[in-house]
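Support case: pyridoxal-5'-phosphate complex. Customer-provided input:
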Amino acid sequence: MPEFAPSANIAALNESATIAVSAHARALRAAGVPVVDLGAGEPDFDTPSFICRAAQRALDAGATRYTATEGILPLREAIADAATALRGGPPARPVEPDEVVVSTGSKQALMNACFALFGPDDEVLIPTPAWTSYYEIVRLARAVPVPVPGDPTDGLRVNRQALEQAATARTRGLILNSPCNPTGAVYDRQAFGDLLALAESRGWWVISDEIYRHIAYETAAPSSLTIAGWPSRLVVVDGVAKAYAMTGWRIGWAIAPRSLARAMAALQSHTTSNAAAVSQHAALAALSCREEAAAAVAGMVAAFRERRDAALAVFRDEPRLRWVTPQGAFYLFLDVSDIASGDEAAGSVFARHLLDRHHTVVVPGAAFLAPGWIRMSYAAPQDVVRDGARRIVTARRELTD
Ligand code: PLP
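Agent response - structure generated as follows:
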C-alpha cells in the first residue's frame, strides 16, 4: 500500500474534536453500551413538521436541480429582510439579497469568509475558548489563528483591552460568537459594541457567528447588525441548524458587503456549487412561516432552559465546582482543572474517566483551547441531562478525593 503523505494544505489539520466525540458515542451505542450523550452539538428535537412539509412540497414541485450558486432568490430575500429588521437606527438602507450567500451549513459560510478575507501570515483574533473549527478554518486559509483568552471572572468573555493586547500590525480579523459555543456566554450590547467599535477603528474584518442567537434565556442575544448597523467590514454568519433543529439539512449563510459576497459565491462555485435545493426550500419555510417558526423556536428554547436549570441545580449542590452560567446556546462549560491529571490536560483526563467509568460523553476543553475544562451539552432529554450532571459530580469526587 503506498504511504499517504498529507499535503501542506492539511499537514497541521486536526480532526473536529466535537464530531469525533459524537462518533465515539455512536460507536459505543452500536456496541450495546448505554451511553449518556452530553457531547452532541445539535438539538435533539425533530425538525418542526411545517418545515418538513414545505420540503416535501418543494420536492414534488421539482426542487431537485442545481440552484444559483449563491442560493435561491426567495431564501436570500427572506434572509435579507430579517437582517434589515435587525439593523439599528437611521440612516438605514435595506440589506439586499445580493449581499447574502447561502451555503452548505454555516460552517461553509465561515470557510468561504475566511478563505476570501485572510491569507498567509494574516492574524485573526479568536476570543478563547471558542468553537474548535474557527482555529482550523483560519489555518486552512493559511492565516494564523490568535487565541485571545477570555476573562474567567466574566464568563470567559474577552474585552477590548484583551484584544488590543493581542493585536499586531498583521491583525486582519476577529471572529465573534455570541451566544458562545462552548460557554453559553452572551455579549450584551455594550460589550459587543465595544469590540465592534475597536475592530472598526483598527480596520479589522469582523466575522460574527450568530448561529445560536435565537437560543437565549433571560435576555435576548443582540445581533451585530442591531448594534453596529452596517459597518464597512462585517460578515454575519448564521443558519437554521441550531434554532430550528435542522442540523442535517445543512443550510447556513453569510451576509457581507456586495464585493465580498460575490467573491465568496465565486469560491463556492468551485467547491460545492450550491446548497441542496430541497434544503433551501425547507430553510425558506423556517424563515417565512413566521408564526409557526416563532412557536417552534420558543418551545425548544423553553425546553433548553429547563434542562440548563436542571443541570445547574445538580451542580449548585457541589461545593468547589465552577462553571460558566450559560445565558444562551445549549452548552455548559465546567472547570475541572483542580483534578489530579499529571502531565495530561485535566479536561481530557476527566472526559476519559467519565466515558470509561460512567459511560457519559462530554467534550474535553482542549477542543476549545481550554484544556482544564469540559463542555457538556444539554441538548438531551431532561432526565438524561440530570443523570449526566450527577455522573459528572460523582466522577469529579472520584478524581479529587
Ligand atoms: N458555529 C458554531 C459556533 C457552531 O457551534 C457550529 C456547529 O456546531 C457551527 C457554526 C456550524 O453549524 P452548521 O451546522 O450551520 O454548519
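Residues 49-289 form a domain with the Aspartate Aminotransferase; domain 2 fold (CATH 3.40.640.10).

Case will auto-close in a few days if no follow-up is received.
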